[in-house]
Automatic annotation (TrEMBL):
<dbReference type="GO" id="GO:0045275">
    <property type="term" value="C:respiratory chain complex III"/>
</dbReference>
<protein>
    <recommendedName>
        <fullName>Cytochrome b-c1 complex subunit 7</fullName>
    </recommendedName>
</protein>
<dbReference type="GO" id="GO:0005743">
    <property type="term" value="C:mitochondrial inner membrane"/>
</dbReference>
<keyword id="KW-0813">Transport</keyword>
<keyword id="KW-0249">Electron transport</keyword>
<keyword id="KW-0999">Mitochondrion inner membrane</keyword>
<dbReference type="InterPro" id="IPR003197">
    <property type="entry name" value="QCR7"/>
</dbReference>
<dbReference type="InterPro" id="IPR036544">
    <property type="entry name" value="QCR7_sf"/>
</dbReference>
<keyword id="KW-0679">Respiratory chain</keyword>
<comment type="subunit">
    <text>Component of the ubiquinol-cytochrome c oxidoreductase (cytochrome b-c1 complex, complex III, CIII), a multisubunit enzyme composed of 11 subunits. The complex is composed of 3 respiratory subunits cytochrome b, cytochrome c1 and Rieske protein UQCRFS1, 2 core protein subunits UQCRC1/QCR1 and UQCRC2/QCR2, and 6 low-molecular weight protein subunits UQCRH/QCR6, UQCRB/QCR7, UQCRQ/QCR8, UQCR10/QCR9, UQCR11/QCR10 and subunit 9, the cleavage product of Rieske protein UQCRFS1.</text>
</comment>
<comment type="similarity">
    <text>Belongs to the UQCRB/QCR7 family.</text>
</comment>
<keyword id="KW-0496">Mitochondrion</keyword>
<comment type="function">
    <text>Component of the ubiquinol-cytochrome c oxidoreductase, a multisubunit transmembrane complex that is part of the mitochondrial electron transport chain which drives oxidative phosphorylation.</text>
</comment>
<dbReference type="Pfam" id="PF02271">
    <property type="entry name" value="UCR_14kD"/>
</dbReference>
<dbReference type="GO" id="GO:0006122">
    <property type="term" value="P:mitochondrial electron transport, ubiquinol to cytochrome c"/>
</dbReference>
<comment type="subunit">
    <text>Component of the ubiquinol-cytochrome c oxidoreductase (cytochrome b-c1 complex, complex III, CIII), a multisubunit enzyme composed of 3 respiratory subunits cytochrome b, cytochrome c1 and Rieske protein, 2 core protein subunits, and additional low-molecular weight protein subunits. The complex exists as an obligatory dimer and forms supercomplexes (SCs) in the inner mitochondrial membrane with cytochrome c oxidase (complex IV, CIV).</text>
</comment>
<keyword id="KW-0472">Membrane</keyword>
Amino acid sequence: MALRTTAVLCNNMKKWAYNLAGFNKYGLMRDDCLYENDDVKEALRRLPDHVVDERNFRMVRAIQLSLQKTILPKEEWTKFEEDKLYLTPIVEQVKKERKEREEWEKNY
């Protein structure tokens, strides 16, 4: 019983923090906010074109809304349950490959 209560509380805190961050009010997803270093750029290169196009649309819309100093209507906000990590697994794979390559070059 205590574990279930803790899980519910933890999930509610995640939703609260997600909404507090504010990027969802512009229609962005968590992975849209990643800093674009070399690993993220490589991961973006590996994504299918339609996913990159969707990401670019969200980014341009968010920039436009920010310049207009407005946000989307509440029904268009990205919901915590709908936000999926589409880029993070690929970024982790790219980092792993880079570290493996660096280790290989160091040893051989």
